[in-house]
Specification:
Layout: H1 14-18, E1 32-35, H2 42-63, E2 68-73, H3 79-92, E3 96-102, H4 105-114, E4 119-123, E5 132-138, H5 147-159, E6 169-172, H6 176-184, E7 194-199, H7 209-216, E8 218-223, H8 241-254, E9 258-262, E10 269-273, E11 278-279, H9 281-295, E12 300-304, H10 310-313, H11 315-319, E13 323-327, H12 331-341, E14 345-347, E15 353-355, H13 366-378, H14 385-390, E16 396-397, H15 410-426, E17 430-431, E18 434-440, E19 445-449, E20 454-459, E21 466-472, H16 476-491, H17 502-506
Parallel strand pairs: 2-3, 2-4, 3-6, 7-8, 7-9, 12-13, 12-14
Antiparallel strand pairs: 1-5, 4-5, 9-10, 10-11, 14-15, 16-21, 17-18, 18-19, 19-20, 20-21
Helix pairs in contact: 2-3, 2-5, 4-6
Length: 511
């Protein structure tokens, strides 16, 4: 039997080749991430597969369904061998492995439906640089693991509590990519030609996005669409300014109507308008909600607590009968909430978008998101994306800020702040000269004042820091006032570390 994992092993030793090495810190709130060769070894991935396989077999037995698991890997020089180690563990635990080869995360989610598999295990580190790796997992399609499942997996893996069972098997599906692409194109080509920069950051999306969008009828202007796991220009992350700036420059240089950028495993899409404006994902979400609520009135949308307040107050959404539920940040949390509410779509500020029927199957897919944006443009032939964006009410938002706060204390710090703002609200107190009218506590604390200006403080799910955001629909001055309030409040707590200075400069002359 495989030895119980240890976290004190060193590379280039006999033990490294025979004993699983798994750092406990890799088990995050809703996925798993390690530095390969530092935090985890090949035997560690085999142990992880046995632990996951034990969970899959047990859960499938309860439901009376076969323990079939879709497995895929992203484009990194070590992902294939890590996947093979994971597969050995899954098969040892008694799972029927359905390997789809090189894939995007949404291809693996799609394959759960296409091949009737209960579970998924996608080997990917998304946009992270080398030597990061990880696994996105789920047992109930279209959902992925949340905190409860991750804690259970951690306990089984690190404690060596897995079970070896007979019945494991393996099949390779060579047609997964073609079936996925055909599914994306089932509604036919666009009715008008749209010229778009397609940016992939040399990540796995380069194997899919240019072909899919060209077949959709897009005049594709390729940007970093050659597969290269060294990521020679920047990490494929359309939330980072480096990739967004490159997309913006390409749009302006080529005269394209927009740019669509995809992250390393293809479950997120970033958007830049034809004038070079880098549109944050929460505002793209509002635009899509406007468009979709006109087609499907009186439906619910979900947005994470970092997202713009426009979802709640936009007059177009209200006229279409749309309602928005603000929920916990994190792709697994938002995906699950979207599923539970039967919402039409859910939008996370990081760019994870989730569309339920008839648009999608509920999982996050950057290409489905891109096609939704293109269909929105198709339905507005007289308007550019920049014009559609200009029709949104103007709001002023800070960057997403992350003052340091230790992993062992950050949740306690936030709990204290939640209690503080609930008491302030109950007592009719004011912040920055405005009375607090709402306190949302589903994920940290988001408090809103009379004029719609709001501030958010929550604990980061995967870093030793807090997450802080402020937004005002009134003016930059009101946004800066809220930022200064939040900064002064947190600076007074010696448990909280230094802040990035960017917003200080932005708000320096704002009164």
């Amino acid at each position: 039997m495989l030895a119980t994992p240890r976290d004190d092993l060193k590379a280039n030793t006999p033990e490294w080749e025979t004993i699983p090495h798994i750092a406990a810190t890799g088990f995050r709130e809703y996925d798993a991430r390690w530095k390969y060769g530092v935090d985890i070894n090949l035997m560690g991935f085999q142990a992880l597969g046995m632990a996951l396989g034990t969970m899959v077999v047990d859960e499938c037995a309860k439901k009376g369904v076969p323990p079939r698991v879709v497995v895929g890997h992203d484009y990194r020089d070590y992902s294939l061998m890590l996947k093979h180690s994971l597969i050995v563990g899954l098969m040892t635990a008694g799972c029927a492995v359905n390997d789809i080869g090189l894939a995007l995360s949404p291809v693996a989610y799609f394959a759960q439906f296409a091949y009737d598999c209960a579970a998924v295990a996608m080997v990917t580190a998304s946009h992270n640089e080398k030597p990061w790796t990880g696994v996105k997992m789920g047992i109930e399609k279209p959902l992925t693991f949340g905190p409860a499942e991750m804690n259970a997996l951690k306990e089984i893996a690190l404690g060596g509590k897995w079970k070896a069972r007979p019945g494991g098997s393996y099949v390779f599906h060579a047609d997964a990519r073609e079936r996925y692409i055909a599914d994306l194109l089932k509604d036919g080509p666009l009715k008008r030609r749209i010229r778009a920069v397609v940016a992939c950051g040399n990540g796995t999306a380069a194997h899919y996005a240019p072909e899919v969008l060209a077949k959709l009828g897009v005049d594709v202007v390729p940007l970093d669409t050659e597969l290269d796991y060294t990521f020679p220009r920047y990490n494929p992350n359309p939330e980072d300014h480096e990739m967004l700036h490159a997309m913006s420059e390409a749009v302006k240089e080529t005269g394209a109507e927009l740019a669509l950028g995809f992250d390393g495993d293809g479950d997120r899409c970033g958007v830049v308008a034809g004038d070079g404006e880098e549109i944050f994902a929460d505002k793209i979400g509002v635009m899509l909600a406007r468009d979709l609520s006109a087609l499907y009135p009186n439906r619910t949308f979900v947005a994470d607590v970092k997202s713009t307040g426009l979802y709640a107050v936009d007059t177009v959404l209200k006229a279409n009968g749309a309602k928005t539920d603000y929920w916990m940040t994190g792709h697994s949390h938002i995906k699950r909430r979207n599923h539970e509410l039967g919402a039409l779509a859910a939008f996370e500020k990081s760019g994870h978008f989730f569309f339920n029927a008839p648009i999608g199957r509920g999982y996050d897919d950057g290409l489905v998101s891109a096609i939704a944006v293109l269909r929105m443009m198709e339905r507005n032939p007289g308007k550019s994306l920049a014009q559609l964006y200009a029709e949104l009410p103007v709001t002023h938002a800070t960057l997403t800020m992350g003052p340091h706060c230790g992993d062992t204390i950050k949740y306690g710090v936030v709990d204290e702040l939640v209690a503080r703002f609930k008491a302030m609200h109950a007592n009719g107190e004011s912040v920055t000269g405005q009375k607090i009218v709402e306190v949302l506590t589903v994920n940290g604390v988001r408090f809103t004042t009379e004029d719609g200006t709001w501030g958010l403080i929550r604990a980061s799910s995967n870093k030793p820091q807090l997450v802080v955001v402020a937004e005002s629909p009134v003016s930059k001055a009101r946004m800066c006032a809220m930022y200064r309030y939040l900064k002064d409040l947190l600076d007074a707590d010696t448990r909280i570390g230094a802040w990035d200075q960017t917003m200080d400069a932005t708000c320096q002359n704002c009164h």
